From TrEMBL:
Residues 11-202 form the Class II aldolase/adducin N-terminal domain. PANTHER family: 3-OXO-TETRONATE 4-PHOSPHATE DECARBOXYLASE-RELATED (PTHR22789:SF0), FUCULOSE PHOSPHATE ALDOLASE (PTHR22789). Pathway: Amino-acid biosynthesis; L-methionine biosynthesis via salvage pathway; L-methionine from S-methyl-5-thio-alpha-D-ribose 1-phosphate: step 2/6. The gene is mtnB. Belongs to the aldolase class II family. MtnB subfamily. This is Methylthioribulose-1-phosphate dehydratase. It comes from Thermithiobacillus plumbiphilus. The keyword Flavoprotein does not apply.
């Protein structure tokens, strides 16, 4: 159909969402994705949309304050977690895309976090997340899952101002990971690598490897 094709960032976001949905990381309407828009601000998934079949109408373009710039579906509202994306784009201007998924493994691994940090095992996969040292000690920042999302965003903004995470990711306790990259491809790779690490951590415990190091 002429004129129906989506040629902007939404196409990559919809493809990534389908990919995550198929892996069980974006079941139902859960999770949200965003990418900086060439037209200004960023595109983010509209609230309550099924992630296996997103179309261009399932995204809303907002500015860095979360104000709606463009809403192809007039009924649409930006994701309830838009303020978390704003905090990350603000802290790291080089970020082009942010993906937030809800995997079972991330929520199990969160139980092993202490004092707002989760130590990750020194797997080869860490290199793909930008850490090239031998046997690196990498801590993922962990945030409380407060009932009011802007309160979580405020904690994230405050902490990101003080420290840059060693890898482009953070975890919200018993909720899910938020992962970013310079573009959709990088954010997708980072999400897959981090989720691999969570799977390893859970499987290692089940195999009796204790501290899984
Ligand atoms: Zn969420």
């Amino acid at each position: 159909m002429a004129g129906a094709a989506v040629t902007d960032e939404r196409r990559e976001l919809a493809a990534a969402a389908r990919h995550f949905y198929q892996r069980g990381w974006m079941v139902g309407t859960a999770g949200n994705l965003s990418a900086r828009a060439s037209a200004g601000g960023f595109w983010i998934t509209a609230s309550g949309r099924h992630k296996g079949e997103l179309t261009d109408k399932d995204f809303i373009r907002v500015d860095m304050d979360g104000q709606v710039l463009e809403s192809p579906d007039l009924q649409g509202r930006p994701s309830a977690e838009t303020s978390i994306h704003q905090a990350i784009y603000r802290a790291f201007p080089e970020t082009g895309a942010i993906f937030h998924v809800h995997s079972v493994e991330a929520n199990i691994a969160a139980h092993w976090g202490e004092k707002g940090r989760l130590r990750l095992p020194a797997l080869e996969m860490i290199k793909g997340l930008g850490v090239w040292e031998e046997n690196p000690l990498v801590d993922l920042p962990v945030f409380e899952n407060l009932p009011h999302v802007p309160d979580i965003s405020a904690l994230i903004a405050e902490r990101l101002e003080q420290e840059r995470p060693q890898i482009p990711a953070l975890l919200i306790n018993l909720h899910g990971a938020t992962v970013w990259g310079k573009d959709c491809t990088a954010a997708l790779h980072h999400t897959e690598l981090l989720e691999y690490i969570f799977r390893y951590m859970v499987t290692a415990r089940m195999a009796g490897l204790g501290g899984y190091a």
